[in-house]
Write a sequence for this structure.
């Protein structure tokens, strides 16, 4: 499967006014509080010819029901991850070995009531919460933890509360 390409993807690290970030629990993982790896940042594919900055706002609207956010930072490099062997050929339509991601830091400009996981008829997430950025590497899926650690360092300057 190593000859499969990476899927172009964007990811959103969404900060609230208190400097906390949004993580959401995948609906397709065991819904047990504290289950390892079930919490992640919103992310999704980039459509053909789509600008990554537009894609990240579109993905937010699709996955959490709102695009009430402004881009405040961008990780300077594309990051990649490989799917674990058990997911190769099954996840991502079976057409990709993993994802090549462009990550953005965004400031949430709405209220918690604007976050609507049920906006999509087939929601990817079944719960969400605000957490400290430094917590995210241990909350994410095992195969994404390295990326989350990079993002925790890269976007740390955005984690301060704002007025």
């Amino acid at each position: 499967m190593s000859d499969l390409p990476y899927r172009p993807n964007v990811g959103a690290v969404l900060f609230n006014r208190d400097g906390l970030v949004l993580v959401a629990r995948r609906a397709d993982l065991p819904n047990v509080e504290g289950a390892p790896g079930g919490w992640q940042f919103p992310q999704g594919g980039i459509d053909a010819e789509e600008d990554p900055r537009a894609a990240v706002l579109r993905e937010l609207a699709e996955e959490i029901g709102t695009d009430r956010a402004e881009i405040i930072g961008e990780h300077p490099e594309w990051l990649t991850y490989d799917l674990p062997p058990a997911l190769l050929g099954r996840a991502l339509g079976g057409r990709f070995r993993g994802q090549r991601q462009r990550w953005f830091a965004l400031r949430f400009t709405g209220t918690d009531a604007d976050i609507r996981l049920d906006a999509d008829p087939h929601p990817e997430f079944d719960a969400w919460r605000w957490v400290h950025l430094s917590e995210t590497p241990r909350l994410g899926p095992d195969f994404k933890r390295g990326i989350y650690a990079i993002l925790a360092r890269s976007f740390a300057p955005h984690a301060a509360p704002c007025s």
